[in-house]
Automatic annotation (TrEMBL):
Name of protein: DUF485 domain-containing protein
Sorted UniProt keywords: Membrane, Transmembrane, Transmembrane helix
InterPro entries in UniProt: DUF485, Inner_membrane_assoc
GO cellular component: plasma membrane
Pfam families linked to this entry: DUF485 (PF04341)
Membrane spanning residue stretches: 32-54, 66-89
Amino acid sequence: MLDKQSAATIDDTDRIMRDPAFQALVKERTSFGWTMSIAMLVVYLAFIFLAAFGKGFMASTIAGSFISWGIVFGVFTIVFAFALTGIYVSRANGRFDDLTAQLNRDAM
């Protein structure tokens, strides 16, 4: 059997879960996370497929220098991952934290 405090907590949780602002936050955060994941997956798989099936291109050097296209695309993949991480952290610390703080104020 639930005591009064547990019942109140469940009621509060249900109220927050039904809140349109909370549902909007979850939808926006989930959508943004999937978009970022798909972007990283596309870049990573492009690099892997180029390495597997475009060996001649990846091994060729850029304008006669000693740097190959494989090195360029490899570095790009790593830099892209760091950039996506920075974008996500910026959004999480800005927009998502603001929405969460607003939900916390409304819940009190």
